[in-house]
Design goal:
The complex is a heterodimer of chains A (459) and B (210). Chain A is an alpha/beta fold and 459 residues long. Chain A is built from 24 helices and ten strands. In chain A, strands 1-10-7-4-2-3 form a six-stranded parallel sheet, sandwiched between helices. In chain A, strand 5 and strand 6 form a beta hairpin. In chain A, helix 2 packs antiparallel against helix 12 and helix 16 packs parallel to helix 20. Chain A is elongated and about 95 Å long. In chain A, 49% of the residues are buried. By secondary structure, chain B is an alpha/beta fold. Helix content of chain B is 28%, strand content 21%. In chain B, the strands form three sheets. A five-stranded parallel sheet of chain B has the order 1-11-6-3-2, sandwiched between helices. Chain B is globular and about 70 Å long. Chain B starts with a helix and ends with a strand. The chains are: A alpha/beta (459), B alpha/beta (210). The interface between A and B is large, with 105 and 82 residues.
């Protein structure tokens, strides 16, 4: 089935799933309260946004320079950089490392980039156990689902759902205590950090001047993932780069406030390589995979390039009325919500995912909350434009627009048929596309032009 | 042409046309954060730290600290205390605390006691690094993490702590630095806050006045 048709069908159901809506409203309601509190630590949040936007834009504008700087500094300390143009290249390179360490299990911290390359499926195929350690990811992995949200993977599940998933897969007793559920995950995963040969993480930022990565997390699972295994592989989109270590002051703050409403996330860590000679512990080797996978195509479009400024905070998802109604899974893309609708067509194909750019009322809310000031509504419009210009809209739509244009250009043509005929014709024409939940407006008996003439005459 | 060259080539080509709407350069002097009302760095730090879920003990002197620490540990009856930093080991011996100085039976650890690199007043964060002999493990693996810090280690902003580390270590930069702001936590289930997701459930700070 076509992706857009699948989308329409899922959305039609999800939008009227009251339980789903209650769960999401509950979660996002709590998020909203936290963000309002988090913003209180800023005297001038707008200035912070402008700075973040400026730094990211300038960095992306010199992307090659900063990536080379990152590579030089990271390599100097013994780290290894892997450049991967495609998903296949990334997986092939990771495979070489897994073989070298004879990996039987891999501990993973939360990373959307690993979702993007389908790492878990790849590992399972190689009979290597991928162990998600982030609680939300742990839950959705057990439930054989995809992350629902880029920051809060299990946002769509209630306590009862989680308890049932744990009960069915792990045999734990049913409970409605979030603390008990969390401890099940903690206890089950704890030994895995020590057993796994390889730890795989994402990276929230690549830092050019010290040659390292930064990871932001609350749980401590990324810290453990980068502490015990013999090798640490970090996979990052190549747009994650920032120029200097000190920039983290701003970006950590922005990410925390927009992502969860915290002043600062619990663990903000910088990793610049493997264990050094004068250090107590740490991995023997560290790799950073720089993933392109379509990002340079987006870069080549000077109007849409700013989408690469994204720091994946999830604020645009949480504010989006469309996301809140249709939910994260409906998108069927790695990145959901407004930013997902903007970038998915460029990472996974315009023909396949252009429909997401139309699934928006262009209310503009996403643009107002973005901490790096990405003009998301404008980018959605530009995606629509590109899909039309490259001839991707359906033939029926092309025809319809042509006919509409022809009729509308001449008053005579508009008036050539009766109102009754227009009403019947409209109903027939929009039978499916108008949607079953809204009434088709009827065309007035008298046209505006006729009314105007008649009333003007009277005066 | 390998992937590296291919990607770099693509980037160069892509960037020939500059960004459609470049961002105007904003003011980089003014702080975007609220002004401090506290007079000293350590008071500001304490205020920020106490907004979180960590425990806090302020000690007027090293002697007071030693008494308090001894009292604290004895009260809790811990038997598996791990200390890997020499300075702390000396202090522990002085007040007769049994501790383990290696990583044998680390799985059974109850408490890890470590020093830190810096404290950040703005956020109430404790900065640790892999250059401390506590390593990467002792600041994340134990269920209870006790940190010993000195008032002189306090800096105002995250930025100051980062600059401090850069100048302090220069070419011998730590392989791991972590800004710890409270005990490990999660809110992944219905946004309900639970402490001790994977890291320490309790974070206890003894701040010693110098």
């Amino acid at each position: 089935m076509k992706e857009s048709k699948k989308f329409s069908e899922i959305v039609d159901k999800k939008s009227f799933d009251i339980k789903h809506r209650q769960t999401i409203n509950h979660n996002i309601g709590k998020y909203n309260v936290a963000v309002q509190r988090g913003l209180l630590s800023f005297d001038d949040h707008e200035l912070a946004r402008e700075r973040a936007a400026y730094i990211k834009t300038e960095t992306i504008e010199n992307l090659d320079k900063y990536l080379l700087m990152f590579e030089e500094n990271f390599t100097k300390k013994g780290g290894k950089v892997i450049w991967a143009a495609t998903i296949q290249e990334a997986l092939a390179q990771i495979d070489i490392i897994l073989t070298k360490y004879n990996a039987k299990s891999v501990v993973k911290s939360k990373s959307m980039t690993t979702e993007e390359i389908g790492l878990n499926e790849f590992l399972e195929h190689k009979n290597i156990a991928p162990i998600e350690t982030d609680l939300g990811e742990y839950i959705v992995q057990l439930a054989h689902q995809k992350p629902y949200h880029i920051v809060t993977p299990a946002m769509h599940l209630r306590k009862e759902d989680v308890a049932k998933i744990f009960h069915d897969t792990l045999g734990t007793p049913i409970t409605d205590d979030a603390q008990v559920l969390t401890m099940i995950c903690r206890n089950n995963v704890r030994q895995k950090y020590i057993e796994a040969e390889v730890g795989i993480t994402g990276a929230n930022f690549l830092i050019a001047d010290v040659g390292g990565i930064a990871i932001t997390e609350n749980e401590g699972n990324a810290r453990l993932t980068t502490t015990f295994p013999k090798v640490h592989i970090a996979i990052a989109g190549l747009e994650k780069i920032i120029p200097s270590l000190e920039d983290l002051d701003l970006f950590w703050s922005m990410l925390a406030t927009s992502g969860t409403g915290q002043r600062l996330t619990v663990y903000n860590s910088i990793l610049t390589g493997a264990k050094q000679n004068d250090e107590t512990d740490g991995p023997e080797e560290m790799y950073v995979v720089l993933l392109d996978n379509g990002r340079t195509n987006l870069l080549a479009d000077e109007k849409k390039r700013q989408a690469l400024n994204c720091i994946r905070c999830g604020a645009c998802l949480n504010i989006c009325p469309v996301y809140k109604n249709i939910g994260g899974h409906s998108y069927n893309t790695t990145y959901s919500g407004p930013i997902g609708a903007v970038i998915a067509p460029h990472l996974e194909g315009m023909a396949k995912f252009k429909h997401l750019s139309y699934a928006s009322s262009l209310c503009g809310a996403c643009g107002t909350v973005c901490p790096v000031k990405i003009d998301l509504p404008q980018l959605l419009v530009l995606n629509r434009q590109e899909s039309v210009e490259t001839g991707l809209q359906p033939i029926s739509e092309k025809w319809a627009m042509n006919i509409w244009q022809t009729i509308m250009q001449k008053r005579k043509r508009v008036d050539s048929v009766s109102t009754r005929f227009k009403n019947v014709g409209f109903k027939q024409f929009f039978k499916t596309s108008w949607g079953k939940r809204r009434a088709m407006p009827t065309i007035a008996k008298q046209s505006f032009q006729a009314w105007w003439r008649a009333n003007k005459m009277k005066k | 042409m390998d992937s590296r060259e291919k990607i770099l080539e693509k980037i160069k080509k892509a960037l020939i046309i500059p960004t459609d709407k470049p961002m105007p350069k904003p003011d980089f002097k003014k702080s975007p954060y609220i002004q401090f009302t506290e007079a000293t760095c350590e008071v500001a730090f304490a205020d920020a730290y106490n907004k979180g879920k960590g425990e806090f003990y302020f000690c007027e002197s090293l002697e007071v600290f030693l008494t308090q620490l001894k009292h604290y540990l004895d009260n809790k009856n811990f038997t598996k205390i791990f200390i890997w930093e020499e300075y702390l080991q000396e202090l522990a011996k002085f007040i007769k605390i049994d501790f383990q100085n290696n990583d044998k039976n680390l799985n059974d650890i109850e408490v890890g006691i470590t020093l830190c690199e810096a404290l950040v007043a703005r956020t109430g964060s404790i900065v640790v690094s892999s250059k401390q002999s506590a390593g990467r493990r002792l600041t994340i693996f134990p269920p209870i993490h006790i940190v010993v810090a000195f008032t002189s280690q306090c800096v105002w902003e995250i930025k100051d702590a980062l600059t401090l580390l850069k100048t302090q270590y220069e070419n011998n930069f730590p392989s791991m630095i972590s800004f710890i702001t409270g005990p490990s936590q999660t809110a992944d289930i219905e946004k309900t806050l639970v402490l001790g997701a994977h890291g320490p459930k309790e974070l206890i700070l003894f701040l010693v006045k110098e």
